[in-house]
Design brief:
The structure holds two protein chains of two kinds.
Chain A lengths: L1 E10 L2 E10 L4 E6 L5 H9 L6 E6 L2 E2 L10 E4 L11 H11 L4 H15 L14 H13 L5 E5 L7 H18 L2 E5 L3 H7 L2 E6 L2 E5 L3 H4 L6
Parallel strand pairs in A: 3-8, 3-9, 6-7, 7-8
Antiparallel strand pairs in A: 1-2, 1-4, 4-5, 9-10
Chain B lengths: L2 H6 L14 H28 L2 H9 L1 H34 L5 H13 L2 H13 L7 H9 L7 H26 L2 H9 L4 H12 L1 H17 L2 H6 L10 H10 L3 H30 L1
Classes of the chains: A alpha/beta, B mainly alpha.
């Protein structure tokens, strides 16, 4: 479960005040809102990458507000993916597992399973500089999922992809979610993308975060579709 | 679209004329940039014309010049490695963290860049011989370690390092500025401590910057003269490096030997810089 209680953030001229959010355990939540509203800042605060001015961040009912990012068990896929340019696809999938001192056999099994599910098995030895947009997205998602995080945070992960690849990755995200029931919060601007994955819809407008019925996504068709 | 527009050729976005050739622009920038390359080539060519293989053989035959070559290569390498060792953490700190007084550190680091190198040598000399309770720094160091610094080989390295390190810090800072912090942040969420994120994710990306910092500090150390002369002296077979050899040969009227040594420095610089750059290109791929 992801829970924000009266969370306030400040970053230069930008600030968010008293944001409340609950994404129940095992739910795929989608967060929407205009550009510059602070969606990314909320995700960064959940990860522990952005300091919280006041309020609390709870993950599975534990207060992690003052915890380091490494201790929170959050799988994070940022907007620009931030792959490690000097590493191969395999290195990315192994990265968090080696940090946790997994045994080599367990690492090999986990990497093989992730590569199979994400469809990147033939790319394992390739450097990430030589991947297409869709392949890079899969690697970033695999890296975030590799260590069995308790929550998954996706910041516009399917941006800059063609519609077909985007639909395929939406289906992949949805199937992974159905398989492992991981609590997920996914930021997107695309109603089509949101419609395909969302169990719950959250909208951030003018600093106010509210939950809306998912049916809104099908009712209000807009040009973004 | 009106007929007038069509007549002028502005219809459907056509510019109405063909743009001119790019050659004048390319010629101008080549001429301006090339003039500097030509100057350097002319300088080396003039030196080459002034000397002969016999002068080289004579210069290389002198044991003091052979000693100077050896001391130059060793001291420049130590100084460059020390510079990168210090510049990497300092450049990272200045690039990644905002803290009170950072402007002061920025300014202090730039002092060796803007000051005449001779002043750095003078300042080092004063630092090591300033009267302190219990003797000056030079005496204390000698008492504790038995190592003499001033007018000895360590002074050569210290004089080179004092100037070269500032250039290495600038290079490393720019390198870290250019590396996106996002990958480091993701590494933190994956379970890294800050030091692990630095060594596993950031530092491998800074490889080219490290090579550049090493190259710049080595080259800067090779060319250092003023601070070495003041702080280490120019004692033959002791603190003589190639830059001071040129000075010493000139001071006794041996112009041919001075030119031969100058060309040796050019060759040493080109070989070392070439090797380091080649290594950097291959590893950085």
């Amino acid at each position: 479960m992801i829970e924000l209680q009266r969370l306030s953030l400040r970053a230069g001229a930008f600030s968010l005040r008293d944001v409340n959010l609950v994404v129940p355990h095992g739910v795929y939540g989608v967060l929407m809102g205009g550009t510059g509203q602070g969606k990314t800042s909320i995700l960064e605060a959940i990860c522990g990458l952005k300091p919280v001015a006041s309020g609390r961040v709870l993950l599975d009912e534990r207060d992690v507000t003052r915890w380091k990012p490494a201790d929170r068990g959050v799988g994070y896929v940022p907007q620009d993916l931030a792959l490690f340019p000097m590493m191969s696809v395999r290195d990315h999938l192994e990265f968090a597992l080696k940090l946790r001192h997994w045994k080599p056999a367990a690492i090999a099994d986990r990497v093989a399973m992730l590569a199979e599910v994400l469809g990147i098995a033939p790319l394992l030895e390739r450097g990430v500089r030589h991947l297409s947009g869709g392949e890079a997205q899969r690697v970033a998602i695999g890296r975030a999922l590799s260590f069995n995080p308790q929550v998954l945070l996706l910041d516009e992960p399917l941006n800059a992809l063609d519609e077909r690849t985007r639909d395929r990755l939406c289906a992949l995200l949805r199937s992974i979610h159905s398989e492992i029931g991981l609590t997920t919060l996914h930021i997107t601007h695309s109603r089509n993308e949101a419609r395909q994955v969302a169990d719950r819809l959250y909208v951030l407008e003018h600093g106010q975060l509210s939950e809306r019925p998912v049916e809104e996504l099908t009712r209000e068709r807009t040009a973004s579709d | 679209m009106s007929d007038t527009g069509k007549a002028k050729g502005t219809d459907r976005g056509w510019p109405g004329r063909r743009v001119g050739s790019d050659w004048p622009f390319l010629l101008v920038i080549t001429a301006i940039g090339g003039s500097y390359v030509l100057l350097i080539v002319a300088l080396v060519a003039a030196d080459l014309a002034y000397t002969s293989p016999a002068h080289f053989a004579a210069a290389l035959g002198k044991p003091e010049i052979r000693y100077a070559i050896r001391l130059t290569l060793i001291s420049c390498t130590i100084s460059a490695l020390l510079s990168v060792w210090v510049a990497t953490p300092l450049g990272y700190l200045l690039s990644r963290f905002s803290f009170r007084g950072r402007w002061l550190i920025d300014t202090l680091i730039d002092i060796p860049v803007v000051l005449p190198p001779l002043v750095i040598g003078l300042s080092l000399l004063i630092l090591f011989h300033l009267r302190l309770p219990g003797g000056n720094l030079e005496q204390r160091l000698q008492d504790w370690t038995g190592i003499r610094v001033t007018y000895a080989e360590p002074a050569v390295v210290l004089a080179q390092f004092a100037v070269a390190c500032a250039f290495a810090v600038q290079t490393m800072r720019v390198t870290f500025d250019q590396i996106d912090t996002r990958a480091e942040q993701v590494a933190l969420t994956l379970g890294c401590r800050r030091d692990q994120a630095f060594f596993l994710v950031t530092l491998p990306q800074a490889w080219r910057g490290l090579v550049a910092a090493l190259t710049i500090s080595w080259a800067r150390s090779l060319g250092e003269f003023g601070p070495i002369l003041v702080f280490a002296g120019a004692t033959r077979m002791r603190t003589e490096v190639l830059s001071t050899t040129v000075f010493l040969e000139l001071s006794v009227g041996q112009l041919e030997a001075a030119v031969a040594v100058s060309l040796l420095m050019v060759a040493a610089a080109m070989i070392v810089l070439g090797i380091v750059r080649l290594l950097g290109t291959k590893v950085g791929r």
